[in-house]
Amino acid sequence: MRFRMTTRGMWACGLGVLALACDPDDGRGSGGGPIGTGIGSVGMTATDGDSMGDTSGDGGGTDSQGTGPGDGADADADDGADGPKFDLGDAPETTGDPPNCEELGNCQCTIPEHTPCDGGTGDPFRAMGLNCPGELQVNASTSGPVSAIGVRNSFGATNTYDPTEGSIYAVIGSGFVSDLDQVTPNGDSNAQPTHCNDDLGAFDPGGSLPAPLDPSNVGGDCTSNPALVGSGDCSNTIQGQFDQGGSANDYVEMRFDVQVPPDIVSFSYDFAFSSTEWPFYAGSEFNDMYVGWLESENWTGNISFDAAGNPISLNAGFLEYADNGGNLPQLAGTCMRQHAATGWLTTTASVTGGETITVVFGIFDLSDSILDSYVFLDNFEWGCDPTGGPVTQPEG
Q1: Cβ count near 211 (within 10 Å)
Q2: Which of 39, 57, 175, 367 has the most C-beta neighbours closer than 10 Å?
């Protein structure tokens, strides 16, 4: 877990025994364990504050909030005293927002405290840092076969895919989660794997995706033209590839609704994508896709894509581990050997304090129902970093 300061800015004008007066203005775990089991049923929803797949405690809690601006006043040149002001003892420390918070958009922003609660859970939402006891609760649901949703604590023969928060992370795929640890047939290092190649018989939305996901491009930039919000995918990253395939198959998702804490301006989460479609179908109509969708006042659309506007698929620039010879330790002992994966990536997106947002993590096969893809999900956290449009970059 990467901890952050709970108050975005602390600054002070310290006065010594003798000092000039001043104006303060406004003021990851390791592991090698097996894959966890899937959870719940199609469309399972947690609404009572307890996490799915876990019988421990209630989750109702309150969030800490930031302090308001400081009230320091400038010295008045006409108050009857000339020259420097004198004071005895140390002046109290002024805490609050940094002087440039208006420009940064993070005035009074306080990140709620978080303690990982995923040890031993099979709940994918807790696995990525949501719905911990005493913390803000989300209304969470899943869609797709239980066998395509699960948790795990490692992947491959290195620590590349260790959790970035707590001790485990969530997994969803267009194939069975249990297939991820399959090895090449009969131990033949030269053989092509024949697993992670399943038809789930799951939701096949055909020419559409489940609401609120809408592949349609919008006619401009949602960050500069708010009227475009709600008319489609503000990122304009889904339609080109989706139209190439024409239909989504084996669609699996995690989603949640939540009211943003009042002084928060962003959120982030970590993910890693892998696919057995590589190398055979890179750039083709069979190119599977992962979508991270945000429905909010200022953005409706995909928030996880590369700098060139490619969605997370075989075409994304983040495909760091391409296992041409089958020798990459990062993918050794998995069904992704001789295929390809990204490393951990972090998406950050802006939100408005107090609004209710919907976040959807969805993955699907495009055009067919075989040759599966998966996404690992971890470390959801609130933030004080306004981004304008969403940004995805290597984690770290």
Answers
A1: 9
A2: 175
